[in-house]
Amino acid sequence: MVRILESTSFCFAKNEDKHNEDAILEPKLVANGLVLAVADGVGSYPGADLASLSAIEHLNSLNSSSEINQFGNVFTDIHSKVVGLSQYKTDYEKASTTLTYLFLDGEFLHVAHIGDCRAYIQTGSKLRQITKDHTKHQQLLDEKVFTKKQLKNVKGKNVITTAISAVVDMRYDTTSIRLEDITNDDGVATLFLMSDGAHEHWERNPRFSPNTMASTVKLGNALLRRIERYGPTDDYSFVSVKVQI
């Protein structure tokens, strides 16, 4: 049985005069488990906001753990909805979205991911990233062409290599992590999702005070203030939840 102890989320456009191409699913209890998600419409193509919204709406419509855990079906169904946007308007033929979602059941944390949003779990006072970015930068790191230090100030870090789209191949990652590997001694797990517009600011200095790190609400508020202080570079979304299992 999963019990929500604390949760906070935000989802904002970079500018007030543009559509927000991010979309989120706030933590939701489903079938004795919990699901949360973030999606980021790709590249400011027409329909990017509808693509991310389609992904979140589809996830929100699933009512059983068997549906949510059928990753292939989930991504295929969302892909069909995104491709189908062009039937409403031909300008939407390049509409694409990333998607990262987590499903927590009685045994595992299931992770499904495509694109450059990120999922984290909290370990003590630190956040540990549990997804890998599908970006050109990450590809160069994986191929050991450059080091992380060499790529630090190189442009193009947000160029993604796959998405839910009619115009690129869809290559998603999935994994399952046992609950004992994500919970503390009290059986508490703390999960985070961030779009690239949020995790860019988190990675500037991936820490806050111990008091702030102890609360998802305080951490979310502190990150939001940091983004607003430095100025957003993209739409920015954050979803967090602390649960007792």
Question: Could you list some keywords that capture this structure?
Answer:
Phosphatase 2c, domain 1; 245 residues; alpha+beta; five-stranded antiparallel beta sheet; PPM-type_phosphatase-like_dom; 29% helix; 8 helices
Discrete helix count: 8
Overall, the morphology is globular
Q: Approximately how much beta-strand content do the residues carry?
A: 25-35%
Low-confidence stretches: none
Overall description:
It is a single chain. The protein is of the alpha+beta class. The protein has one domain (3-241): Phosphatase 2c, domain 1, CATH 3.60.40.10. It is 29% helix and 31% strand. The protein has eight helices and twelve strands. Strands 1-12-11-7-8 form a five-stranded antiparallel β-sheet. A five-stranded antiparallel β-sheet has the order 2-3-5-6-10. A two-stranded antiparallel sheet has the order 4-9. A hairpin with a 2-residue loop joins strand 2 (22-30) and strand 3. Helix 1 runs antiparallel to helix 3 (71-84). The chain is globular.
Short description:
This protein is an alpha+beta fold and 245 residues long.
Topology:
Elements: E1 3-12, E2 22-30, E3 33-40, H1 48-61, H2 65-69, H3 71-84, E4 96-97, E5 99-104, E6 108-114, E7 118-123, E8 126-129, H4 136-142, H5 148-151, E9 164-165, E10 173-178, E11 188-194, H6 196-202, H7 210-213, H8 216-230, E12 236-244
Antiparallel strand pairs: 1-12, 2-3, 3-5, 4-9, 5-6, 6-10, 7-8, 7-11, 11-12
